[in-house]
Specification:
Layout lengths: L4 E3 L6 E3 L3 H60 L7 E2 L2 H7 L8 E4 L3 E7 L5 E7 L5 H15 L10 E7 L2 E7 L6 H6 L10 H19 L8 E4 L8 E3 L5 E3 L6 E4 L6
Parallel strand pairs: 3-7
Antiparallel strand pairs: 1-2, 4-5, 5-6, 6-8, 7-8, 9-12, 10-11
Helix pairs in contact: 1-3
Length: about 260
Amino acid sequence: MEGGLIYSGSGKGYRNKMPAGLTGFVKSMNTSMKISLGICISFFIILVGILLILSMCKIIELLKRIATSQHILAIHNNNAPSKLAPRKFSAREISRATDYFYDGRIIGRGGKGIVYRGVLQDKSVVSIKKFKLDVPSRIVSEIFVKEVTILSQIKHRHIVRLLGYCADLGGEILVCEFINNGTLYEHIHGKSEGSSTLSFQMRMKIAVEISAALEYLHSSSSTSKNKSIVHLNVNSKRILLDKNYRARLANFREAKVIPQVINHV
């Protein structure tokens, strides 16, 4: 033996001889590494499993949500006059109209959905509202079905017109006429405080137009006999203006259909 080397005795020269204590340490390290690696792999498998389960739960919830919306709307459309039944758009039509929901098409955001500027195959410009997928299914189904069933009964020059809807695997979507001049709120407050572009006469005209829309909703002419529609959330953010500053009442997610109250004088 010379230094840290030991002669093999087989004519093959010298080989390293590791001290006994160091050999045990290396074996211990190898065992620890194997245990750590096993724990990491197990943790990774568990994490992937949890993510898959959560994804499946979301998909199942979305499918139930869409099925509920489609079922309710099918019943409504079967009972509605053909001239009032909204058009059912396919997911492919909606995707093409919004350039596959391109961010540059976004014209508005809300707590429940995102609004896109869409262009249909016939080149008509529309407003497309897509409900967010992370909103609880019960809430979305209720709002979506309510807006479709109520707006499909309404035809008034000062109320935003529903053109159709889509209830597919991509989520619930409303397709309405495009009003290109923003909300009354934006025009009253402007981009900076005190920069309103609306004259007193224009404000009065808008007030008269919205009053006419509300009168229509509250009368039985807007829905079935002896029924009224109440909006329940009329404010400047719910009033849209076109290029001629003609007002449109929008957003019926809180609206209700109630028995009409008739006062006899």
